[in-house]
Amino acid sequence: MIDLAVANDQETFERMGEPLAERGIRVRHVPVRERVVPLGADAPWDPDEYDVGFVYPGRLMEGGVADALLEVPWLNDHETVLTSRNKAEVLARLERADLPVPRSVYVSNDVSEAELAAVFDRFEPPVVVKPNSTTRGVGVAKAHDLDSFLGICDYLSLVHDYRATGDQSFLVQEYLPNATDYRVMVLEGEYVGAVERRLPDEAVSEGQWKHNVHRGADATGVDLPDAWRDLAESVATELEIPFLGVDLLETDDRLVVNETNARPTIDEETKYDPDFYDRLAAAIRTAAQG
């Protein structure tokens, strides 16, 4: 039996436990955040207690402590999580590889109001303003005119005055109206399933536009065309991330890679390919072997 350390005990942890146990992998929760962790001989984890980690913890400081104490390889390690979290880096790398992405400008605070106005003038309003390294849609806003755009940027500058936030940058992107949002899962370079994320009609009528499941969107399993699967696989290959969620946006005439997630939530088994857990178990065993 392989012992798998999983830092997050939310949906993914609950869903993967039984399917992986049936394949010889015991899923165990390793809480790394919001707790006290002795660092000496009475540390909470024995290095011989686990064989492999699932994905590196999202809070990188806590992750560093867990990594040092657990002494395990990870399916998605520290570097892959850092790469995916840097939205601007991902977009730049994908565009250099001739993969389709939204028109974007990267802003590293602080910059002048004149520079921000010049950025806004690059786009047809509205524009999307997106903190560079947040997840789950946190802090993402839409600006319909220059005044509201500058107001959002002022708020980000205020937040960035607290240097402990670390990343003092954000993206300005074109807004793709009425785009259909897909989360595509890629495991070791191969497509393993996808969901369409759609807001309830009531939420749309109230003006909501972000399709994050954590903000109320529904995820429905879908069967994507081969070309779209190939695009998601190309993204994972370019970024060299073993287990990756690739977010695609589809409009009437375009398909673009919006974001990636190296700590993706696993949805219900029925929304993925039938051999998804066989392949996930094989990937975990490969990671465990070093």
UniProtKB/TrEMBL annotation:
ATP-grasp domain span: 91-288
Keyword DNA repair attributed: no
Domain of life: Archaea
PROSITE patterns: ATP_GRASP
Gene Ontology CC entries for this record: cytoplasm
Keyword Isomerase on entry: no
InterPro entries: ATP-grasp, ATP-grasp_RimK-type, ATP_grasp_subdomain_1
Membrane-spanning parts: none
UniProt KW keywords: ATP-binding, Ligase, Nucleotide-binding
UniProt GO MF annotations: ATP binding; ligase activity, forming carbon-nitrogen bonds; metal ion binding
Name by which UniProt lists this protein: RimK family alpha-L-glutamate ligase
Protein species of origin: Natrinema altunense
